Amino acid sequence: MKKVLLFLLMAGCACVGNTQIVTPTIQGRFGIDADVQHNIFVTPPCSDCDDWFYPQVDNGNNSLFVIDTTGAAAIAAGYLANPAANANIPFYRKMRYPAFYQTNQRTLIDAVFVRDYHDFDQTAFGAGSNKNGDSPGLWTGGSGNMLQKNDILDTYLHLRRQGPNYNQTDSLWLFGAVAIEGTNGDRYFDFELYQTDIFYTRSTGKFTGYGPDAGHTSWKFDAAGNVTQAGDMIFAANYSSSKLTSIEARIWVDQALLNNPPANFDWTGTFDGASNNSQYGYAGIQAKNNVPFYFGYENTGAIWAGPFLMPRATGAVVTQYAKGQFMEFGINLTILGLDPVSLMGKTPCGIPFSKVMVKTRSSTSFNAELKDFISPFDFFLPPMVDVTADVPVFCGATGISNVSVVNPYSTSLYTWSTANGRIVTNDSTSITVDKPGTYVVLQTLETGCPTYAADSITIAYDPSCVTLASNKINLTGSLNNGLVNLDWTVTANNEIKYFTIERSTDGEHYTLVGAVKRGDSHSAYATYKANDGVFGLLASKVYYRIKVTGTNGEVTYSRVVELPLAVNNSMVTLAPNPSQHAFSINIASNTEKEVQVFIYDVTGKLVRTTNAHAQKGYSTIKISGLAPWARGMYTVKVLTGNSVFLQRILLTK
């Protein structure tokens, strides 16, 4: 039975310091030089330091680039062939390495590149007093032309640890960058980091999924100033006179807590909420002893814009960011007191946030009018462990079963255990067992990390069962309008007396739901069908297996078929998830109704709509043709009558 353990997302923050570095530098083995490629402005050259991109030819040393460039040539060709049609289409790319990838004195946790709308922007703040201290529930989104110095073009984000050790001697670094259309005047932007699954719907211009404390998740502390709950945070950057002038770090807190000093950082005395008397708001923090914690730089000359090229508001497609267009910064979260090693007694395996939103402001004031934004996008989402067994039931006292992880993640560690079974061999992602029992696997994202997820499977024992070694049984199943359709084949039909259909809602305990007699005994190979009604079954999944009884009384079992159902009383599920080229939307309904489906990419762009009719019972809407789509997370919104369902689906290679 699947048991997903809580993965605590640590929250981080940013602060204002009296000192900062505003010249090109290497920190955390990463270039902070307002350039997207390796060692252009930093001298002497570093042969083992990383950046966002390389030119298309690797320079042959030990440096890495962190952003996946899959599809760059096709995107660039599309811009050049038809810029009017393609230049204003946003997209994103994740890190080109798996999360927690370790190599040569650094640990790459995650990275993302997001290209926003250009010129006529589909994700911009509408007229009104939208500001950082507001609840996202009060913000109003819309579309329109942006003032160029407020128009976001590209955004970059990367989290890494400098070194292979999980302690504070290996600093945790957050790197960010942004390219803005305008190159004249001062520029002001924010990286806001959320603990909740905040989401923006373009059709309504509204945000949902924000935190419970006046629209955010608040930080909490004990009497000694230690963090007991991590919350939302924001890095507010101000660029003027062609350089970074400040990065302000703030966390969302109850104003009453400002009377108590935190253990790991200091308050700066600033606090801004929705009004002067707000209970909750963003409070500024700084590193202990006011140690410099951030580094930033603005490009002082034209630089390469990366392999995806750069569409400009003029309609031109260029290969370079213009002077003053690209701004880059790095923040040492360890110095700032936000390393998970020092927070709440946790290991350094947590990350500071789960969703990111990038915004621009009209002035240096933290509560200045918000202008452009990139819809909240996911950061760090490895697959949770899922296991299966090729022989779920031992016929007789002994047997052999291979239990394996269905979706192994290359940098995760898998630890197996059993209280009542026996593991014969173990190669991390699979085990061989020779005794009935329950087998549990724990997934950790790296050595020393807490458990990220877990799954278990039970190998049952049937004392009256003897293996029918010569019979091969293949079982498949599908869900349609409240009915599970089961199809199976056998290779020694003449040896069979009858079939028993068994169902489970937890993958462990099965009950009888039907029986099927053997068909024509003259044919060795035979196919069979059966169905089972499951409408109203309150479970997230349903499991089926076929028990085969032979003419001599011997028994064997098929493999288990697992099918998704509506979770609890939720009426909508997506399957398979993750998916590659297509998936199904399964809808449970007590009445006939019309259904509208909206699918959004990570930037909030509506990429597909579908209208369908749901019958009473279960209905399935097929979503196909996804092979050309960018790999990554999408949000599916389903409207059925007065109900709205939001679920995410991951598209994989």
Automatic annotation (TrEMBL):
InterPro entries: Ig-like_fold, Secre_tail. PROSITE patterns: PROKAR_LIPOPROTEIN (PS51257). This is T9SS type A sorting domain-containing protein. Residues 576-649 form the Secretion system C-terminal sorting domain. Residues 1-16 form the signal peptide. Keywords: Signal. Gene3D superfamilies: Immunoglobulins.
